[in-house]
Design goal:
The complex is a heterodimer. By secondary structure, chain A is mainly beta. Chain A contains no helices and eleven strands. The chains are: A mainly beta, B mainly beta. Chains A and B meet through strand 4, strand 5, strand 9 and strand 10 of A and strand 5 and strand 10 of B.
Amino acid sequence: GQQVMQIPQYQHVQEGEDFTTYCNSSTTLSNIQWYKQRPGGHPVFLIQLVKSGEVKKQKRLTFQFGEAKKNSSLHITATQTTDVGTYFCAGFSGAGSYQLTFGKGTKLSVIP
Amino acid sequence: NAGVMQNPRHLVRRRGQEARLRCSPMKGHSHVYWYRQLPEEGLKFMVYLQKENIIDESGMPKERFSAEFPKEGPSILRIQQVVRGDSAAYFCASSPGGGGNYGYTFGSGTRLTVV
């Protein structure tokens, strides 16, 4: 079945430093989504990428979808303490599958 | 405009009892998904339902687990004869369209503890 791998599992950064998490799928994806989950909270949808090579920005967050539509990244510039949480990518392969497959997430800690 | 409503937030059950988790999707959403999350783990797909239909239950254990989304009322995830290994957070999500073509709106989850 489809697998989505995410690295790193944990990341500790000093406030103001940049942060990047990477996501790789074992199969070509129809789209990829990113979610953020605060400690003790629930996943919150951030963005969906659909096109090969697509880049989208949300303030300090930059999302990329690879040319082969098998990998993606989330980059946060100048982290703040409000960025703390776990960031999940989730891939949808389409092709008769209804499942959105989540990676294990990258847990971000920001040291003030 | 209420989001996805899940209840209860916390549920404690003794081994062998039944657990019923309820989920009301966002207004206008007819697609419901159940995911399970263990501590420090990602979300594992369990089941995808539309009104009165189970579309994909490939992530659901064959025994003791069942899900429904009746014409009226919330979606229910039912776990019979719970065991300690069922302890987890169970999240429900909804979307306006099917599969993974839309971003999911998640509820606050039900934290199930089996003692």
